[in-house]
Amino acid sequence: MRRIRGKFLWALLACTLACASAGCGADDEAKAKAEEEKRLEEKEREAALEAEREAEEARAAAEREPYYLYDNMEEYVASDLVQNLLGSSLAEYNTDEIGFAVRGEGNRLIYEYTYKTLAMTEEMRPLMEQELDKQAEAIQSVADSLQDVVDVEQPTVVVRYLDMNGAQIAAREYTARQDAQ
Q1: Are 101 and 119 in contact, with CB atoms under 8 Å apart?
Q2: If both were cysteines, with which of 42, 53, 156, 162 could 175 make a disulfide (CB 3.0 to 4.6 Å apart)?
Q3: Hey, is 31 helix, strand or coil?
């Protein structure tokens, strides 16, 4: 059971890293895009180092703590285990530009990114779809691992990108595969 929990923690951390490093904006000027890409690359490097440290801590915690099975996603997200894992990530990735939230609803674990200073443009949707493509494997892994810790049928991870007005830019759902157990 500790091995399953360890896999789950790895998957959750991978998803958090993948999702958190997926910021981009729609800017018409090439210089601004280049500066933004450089800033994002630096943030990704920092996030990778932080994720590595957190993964080591999670592995150690997984060996010390008992295995839990939660009755629903709301209980799972509210658990001390998940709140401790997400606490530092939420604080780090909630910035003046991007808001990050995680919540449970029914059988769904929802990751929501809100761009606080950008209204949706035509250029944003394809960029966000590309980010979702890059994250697909990590997020699918999280969805698959939820079967082992949350007692719901067809656990699903939802990733949403919203603009400053709450309009959905892009979203994807990843339902746990039955053969992944």
Answers
A1: no
A2: 156
A3: helix
